[in-house]
Specification:
Elements lengths: L7 H13 L2 H4 L9 H25 L5 H43 L6 H17 L1 H27 L16 H13 L8 H4 L8 H33 L5 H6 L3 E2 L3 E2 L2 H30 L9 H14 L4 H40 L1
Antiparallel strand pairs: 1-2
């Protein structure tokens, strides 16, 4: 298995883009409605222990990714079974993100274009990037993260004239239940999805690198998503947010500064695509690395193309409509993802701690 080295800065930038991913399109914790920004903050707090666990697993075995750790801790058979589960999760998550963005492109830009064509073109770009490895993704992320953050900051500032403070008042009007529900959703989508990075981070700078990369990336990405959530509710209001598929894009379309700065949604949409592209690439890379490990293939690169094309097909058949996609994201996904994001990591962490203690006694 190849060892690919990335710097802490590249890892942080990649994590930021991964966290932003689909949520720049679909929002975060929107079940909480006008209090979605509060739910987003709460979900960040909830995610910290999970990311500490992911980081601990990696730091226990420096230079190893999750699939290598699983076989070291649980043996070839049981480690292989858990690996297959995580291969599926990475693969399926990648297909879900691809579908999010193909729906977005189909709705806002290319309504007459067959969606399968959009999916395939998107995946062809991912094949090119993943075959060049995580080092290229790291360098690419290091450059483009600044661009994405710049566009988001500009968007928020340009949207200030359209904001109405009454849209978030009264705070917690619907009680704590929607906020808690939204926070759980925000935890699963996107913060705890960073478990995917345990599958691709092998050679890092030092044992503390996983903590620094995952926590910093998650916190920066989480703050950005919280600001975007607050902007959306201030600009659109609860009523309009509840009926819009892509609330952030709808907020962008309201920007009009003196008739001079307007129609900026195209350039900002590109920055959204960049974040989604990185997220899909990380998922595809994780699935290919895991499959190569289980099948004892020397290089994951030889299976990138078939896995990516299969991911494209699954992305196309995931949902029957955009409504079904939204329903899955906010009603089903947090339950579906629980074993991969919480239950299995707890088991792996306990197993790794036992393994470390036994090796020290030996």
């Amino acid at each position: 298995m190849e060892k690919e080295l990335i710097t802490n800065k590249q890892g942080i930038m990649m994590t930021i883009l991964f966290v932003l991913g689909s949520n720049l399109l679909l929002g975060i914790a929107e079940e909480a409605k006008r209090d979605s920004w509060i739910a987003a903050l709460l979900s960040i707090i909830m995610a910290v222990p999970a990311l500490l666990a992911y980081s601990r697993i990696l730091s226990n075995f420096p230079g190893k990714n999750l699939f290598e750790i699983l076989q070291m801790v649980f043996g070839r058979f049981f480690g292989g079974v858990i690996s297959i589960l995580y291969i599926w999760y990475a693969f399926h998550l990648g297909s879900l993100v691809v579908r999010n963005f193909s729906e977005f492109i189909n709705v806002i830009a290319l309504p007459e274009t067959p969606e399968l064509f959009i999916v395939i073109v998107f995946m062809l770009l991912c094949i090119w990037a993943v075959k060049d490895g995580i080092e290229l993704l790291g360098k690419w992320s290091e450059f483009f993260t600044h661009l994405v953050i710049f566009f988001i900051i500009a968007l928020v500032l340009l949207s200030i004239p359209n904001m109405e403070i009454n849209n978030i008042l009264p705070i917690m009007y619907n009680g704590p239940k929607p906020v808690i529900k939204g926070a759980i959703s925000g935890f699963a989508f996107p913060f705890a999805e960073t478990v995917i990075f345990t599958m691709v981070f092998g050679a890092l700078k030092d044992k503390s690198s996983p903590y620094r990369i995952l926590l910093t990336g998650m916190l920066v990405g989480g703050v950005i998503l919280t600001i975007v959530a607050l902007m959306n509710i201030l600009v659109l209001g609860e009523k309009f947010m509840s009926i819009l598929y892509f609330s952030t894009y709808s907020s962008i379309r309201t920007v009009n500064v003196g008739g001079f700065i307007q129609r900026v949604e195209g350039s900002v949409a590109i920055s959204f695509m960049i974040a989604g592209f990185v997220k899909v690439c990380v998922c595809l890379l994780a699935a290919c690395k895991g499959l190569a490990k289980v099948l004892k293939i020397e290089s994951y690169r030889v299976i990138v193309t078939p896995v990516a094309l299969l991911m494209a097909e699954v992305a196309y058949v995931n949902y029957i409509s955009i409504t079904a996609m939204i329903d899955w994201n906010y009603r089903v996904y947090n339950i579906y993802a629980l074993p991969f994001q919480v239950l299995l990591p707890i088991i792996i962490l306990i197993g790794s701690e036992i393994k470390i203690r036994r090796s020290k006694k030996a």
